[in-house]
Specification:
- By secondary structure, the protein is an alpha+beta fold.
- It has two domains: about 120 residues, no CATH class; about 80 residues.
- Helix content is about 25%, strand content about 30%.
- The protein contains two helices and 13 strands; from the N terminus they run H-E-E-E-E-E-H-E-E-E-E-E-E-E-E.
- The strands form three sheets. Strands 6, 9, 10, 11, 12 and 13 form a six-stranded antiparallel sheet that branches. The protein has a five-stranded antiparallel sheet with strand order 3-2-1-4-5.
- The chain starts with 11 loop residues before the first helix and ends in a 45-residue tail after the last strand.
Length: about 270
Amino acid sequence: MAKNKTIKASKASRNIYILFCVVGAICFLVGAYFLIDFLMTSPNYEEIPATISRIERHTDPHGDVSYDVYVSYTYKGEQYTSIPLNAYDSSMDVGDEITIQVNRSDPYDIRSKHVSVLLFSIFLGLGTFVCGVTTFLLVRYARKNRASLLIRKKGTPVACIVTAVRPDPSYLVNGRMVNNILTCTPAQDPAQNFQSPPYPAKYFVSPGSSITVYVMQEGAREYYVDLASLKAAPLPNGRMPAPAPAPEPAPAPEPAPQENCAPLMPPIDRE
């Protein structure tokens, strides 16, 4: 395992909580805007009965369906026919009598009190619920982190061995698990197991690697797996690094060239 990169716990859950909290806050603000607008403009409107004269159904090229509601009513002795309401409820039907609000200074400006109240109630309720739940989860996440820091500060370090690494199914990106969780056991007590928090799967951790776990008491369930004591190089898609190719054998040395030498002949005696 390469030792040039420190592994850190994944913060995906915290980021998701923050995202949902922001979405909830936006919903709440939209609902508050509708509520304030409704309360501020209500003195300018007067409630009167009206009859739904027709409902037109429209379908766009994407298959989305919308409805236009037209109502007829009498205001100050004058008849108004097929005036667009700019509001729709699934309970509406042609011929139904509903209560509308008509602008005193502009009788063609009408709105449905029921739909207006329903609109800001949905946004306010949804925003409050989402913000409340995500705030609770963020507080619990922060407390868990503080508890982990306390355990690391006051706990007893225990040398452990990584026994298994598995994907974390609780967080998916495009249908793919992007985090891993490792299991380790103390070197002196293989029957005890510790699980790490999720960490990015791009880091390769092989079973048998050493890691430090801080434990508050012997055999206690409060512990902190120190991922920083493991170091690994970031790998694409969390895959194992490819083995290095075997070195090619060195070419055999060529034999030294031999000179063609004639054998030495003994001198001939000519006497």
